Amino acid sequence: MEFSRGFRIFLRVCMWIGLAILYIPLILIVVNSFNQSKTFSFPPTGFTLEWWIAASHSAGALRALGTSVIAGVGATVVALLLGTMAAFAVQRYRFFGRQTISFLVVLPITFPGIVTGLALLASFTNILGPLGVGLGIATVIIGHATFCIVIVFNNVQARLRRLGTSLEEASADLGGTGWQTFRYVTFPSIRGALVAGALLAFALSFDEIVVTTFTAGPEVQTLPIWIFGNLFRPNQAPVVNVVAAVLTIVAIVPVWVSQRIAGDSVTSRV
Prior knowledge:
This protein is mostly helical. It contains eleven helices and no strands. It has one domain: MetI-like (MetI-like fold, Orthogonal Bundle).
């Protein structure tokens, strides 16, 4: 389909406006992290690395960073295991209720975070509470895994759908066992999807705040919660800018890497 020159210009302008709305605020955060002023003022009054040095020595920020990494890695591992198994079950086997299971696996990503958080809080309080298990890092990991599973499931299912079953059937015809087929044929074919799904799941978990607020309890503080808690403290505003800038970079890198991996794996098969 060929569009007119005027319409192409209109689409290009809309694209740049959309990109500006998305990324100018992120650029301002990074710029403000080097601002001499202690406020969120713009333009910057001068250039300084003082706030970056202060952030690197902030015990609260570093502790929150470690908690976020632990929660992200834990949620990613759970999502990889459950999401991959669910994708194989739905894509490789035919059974009653298969479409329903696929729908139920994907559904949590559509729920508002506050609804998911409330539901998890009620479940943890009523089920784990009588057993003496309180809110903590384990409940945060479970909470994050509820939506990270969807990311892995979608990535692996899409890859399995494109691969088909011809290679696996050929391996079986040549005498390969189920484990050999998975190790030498299936796993190398879906490895890119697994890595991409894991990176996206970690990025999604790392900057989650709504579900974390309901499932963390009073003693667990992730980096997004630390940022929100210190956002309106005048003395902490510059450090918050630095931490937000770091969080932005950390969130961008996994998404970029996952896109490169997914793109390279597709190119290599073509």
